[in-house]
Amino acid sequence: MAIRVLIVDDSAVMRSLLTELIGGGPDLTVVGAAPDPLAAREMIKSLNPDVLTLDVEMPKMDGLDFLERLMRLRPMPVLMISTLTEKGSETTLRALELGAVDFLAKPGRSVEILDYGEEIREKIRAAHQARIRARPRQEATSHRKAGSSVRLDPRTIRERLILIGASTGGTEAIKDVLTGLPGGCPPVLMVQHMPEMFTGSFARRLDSLCELTVKEAEHGEALQPGVAYLAPGHSHLLLVKRGGVLRCELSRSEPVNRHRPAVDVLFESAAPLVGAQAVAALLTGMGKDGAKGLLSLKRAGAWTIAQDEASCVVYGMPREAAAIGATSEIVGLKDVAAHVLRRLAGDVRRIA
């Protein structure tokens, strides 16, 4: 049975384009297109769609207000369609906090429409598979630094490294893991499948919430304890060693597993350099990116963690890793940070 999609966008041109692109998939059908959230509310009742695409800035009712009410009263998979602006990226990240499964930038002049059509159809299929739960009313996220009560002895974490990869549902999953880590932990390298315009906003949002310093990775910078480095949306992030110092390296080489940045690129680069000194976590996401890289890390002696099916938004990447024997353990999202800390040093101690 085809996946039933409702489009919500105030632009008639965009509604027409999205209808054509989404309808190009034999397993997808557009059941309606609403010009605003009030119309969408009635169409949801009458058409019972499987997936909703939602514009960020909407007339008559703010898109975030509509999303927050929807996820409380009639939770369903929502794919946000956002403009590539600083304001649009901040709003989209808030939408993910409220329960949207994923997002896609609106097509610009330089976008190849056929490629864009395939991407939106893939994201709708992923959204349809997502685990959606009713959400209580949420207030805006407070800018409060959070971290673990666990503290690490600096002598035991020298040369240690934390690696994280995620895709669909990963913005919230990464936030949950990082807010569970103390400011004094080893460097963290992260890949989240995300367009270029969004990674800066995502890093700043994480930095406002975590004890760790969170930033976009820069080419050639040396790794520092207590800092989490996020791959920018335009480049692969690799680990290199120059002059005896571990550094970030950025590359605009071809996409891997259809992604740039790709999790496999980071994990494969780290395996021969850090081996047993690394702890790696592969979190929620569609597809298989990161599975082979996680296996390389495990074979090199790293401790490898995959998020479990029950806590994933989309159980794709972790499932692929488990299927090829790449995981040392599989744990729920709320326990990932604790398991990372447990493996970092033998003398981790809990501060009352």
Spell out the key features of this protein.
5-stranded parallel β-sheet, 2 domains, disordered C terminus, 352 residues, Rossmann fold, 16 strands, alpha/beta, 36% helix, elongated, 7-stranded parallel β-sheet
How would you characterize this protein structure?
The chain has 11 helices and 16 strands. The chain is α/β, with parallel strands linked by helices and 352 residues long. The chain has 2 domains: 3-129, 3-Layer(aba) Sandwich (Rossmann fold), CATH 3.40.50; 150-350, 3-Layer(aba) Sandwich (Rossmann fold), CATH 3.40.50. It has a 7-stranded parallel sheet with strand order 9-10-8-7-13-14-15, sandwiched between helices. Helix 3 runs parallel beside helix 4. The longest helix is centred in the middle third of the chain and has 17 residues, at 113-129.
Fold topology:
Layout: E1 3-8, H1 12-22, E2 28-34, H2 37-47, E3 51-55, H3 63-73, E4 78-82, H4 86-98, E5 102-105, H5 113-129, E6 150-151, E7 161-166, H6 170-178, E8 188-192, H7 196-209, E9 213-216, E10 227-230, E11 236-242, E12 245-251, H8 263-274, E13 278-282, H9 291-299, E14 303-307, H10 317-323, E15 329-331, H11 333-344, E16 349-350
Parallel strand pairs: 1-2, 1-3, 3-4, 4-5, 7-8, 7-13, 8-10, 9-10, 13-14, 14-15
Antiparallel strand pairs: 6-16, 11-12
